[in-house]
Every structure is written in structure tokens, then in C-alpha cells.
Design brief:
The chain has 138 residues and is of the alpha+beta class. It is built from three helices and eight strands.
Length: 138
């Protein structure tokens, strides 16, 4: 398994419009990409940060992952996304080590990436997302 880079840091936000206004006010930044990810019940706004991004997330459903996160922990860092060269190989490697995964198979995420999450109990309490930009090869 090879890490390509830190793809993004996901930040849970109660109100995406407010988060975007803060980014505009503090850093004169506008989003490079916005998207509704219905599968995850979330609206996103991505901001370029060098070779990585900040992804602000607003829940579209209080029972969605971000809605539940905010109700338990409040706004703030939700996950760190590591881009890998082959998401199927990465998941197979982790499974062979007995690592607890939230997703055993990759699924479509924002920006047409393939994603899978590692359970935070395996990473010292940090939700880790694996991502691959192109169609994963099995």
C-alpha cells in the first residue's frame, strides 16, 4: 500500500454557508468545488490548500454521519483523507492485518473518487478515509 498524499481534511460544519463566509473573510478563498453527496447525506465545499484540500461538510439529515458527529462532538475536524495508489490493495492489506474497517469495499465519494473508511478505534480515535481518484482496479 502506497500513500500518494494527504488528499484532504474533512471539517464538520453546522452551516456550510457560514463556513464558506469564514473562508472568504479570513483567507479570501472561494471553493474550488461544491457538491451534494446524497449517499453520505452531506453537502461539501472544497478549498485548495497546496496539494491538499480542506473539505467543509454540512449534513442534509440529522441522522447522517455528519449530523450524528456534530450532535455528539460539535463542529470541527471530522476525518483525514489519505490518497492511495490502489484502494483495493490497501483494503486487502488492512483486512489481512485484522484492521476494523467501516467500508470493506470502496464506494463513490465526492469528486467521483473511490473511498473507504477505517474505523477510528484502529487509528487512535481519528477517522481515516482512503481515497483513489480513478476507477480502482481489483
Amino acid at each position: 500500500m502506497k500513500f500518494v498524499r494527504i488528499n484532504h481534511i474533512g471539517i464538520a460544519s453546522k452551516d456550510l454557508g457560514e463556513a464558506m463566509a469564514r473562508m472568504a473573510n479570513l483567507f479570501d478563498q472561494t471553493p474550488t468545488h461544491q457538491e451534494l453527496v446524497e449517499d453520505q447525506k452531506v453537502k461539501t465545499a472544497f478549498y485548495s490548500a497546496g496539494e491538499s484540500h480542506l473539505e467543509f461538510l454540512e449534513s442534509t439529515d440529522p441522522e447522517g454521519p455528519i449530523g450524528k458527529f456534530i450532535s455528539k462532538r460539535g463542529q470541527g475536524i471530522h476525518h483525514i483523507c489519505l490518497e492511495v495508489d490502489n484502494i483495493h490493495e490497501a483494503l486487502a492489506h488492512l483486512k489481512s492485518k485484522g484492521v476494523r474497517l467501516i467500508d470493506e469495499q470502496p464506494r463513490k465519494g465526492a469528486q467521483d473518487c473511490w473511498v473507504a473508511f477505517i474505523h477510528p478505534s484502529e487509528t487512535g480515535g481519528v477517522l481515516m478515509e482512503l481515497s483513489q481518484e480513478s476507477e480502482p482496479k481489483k
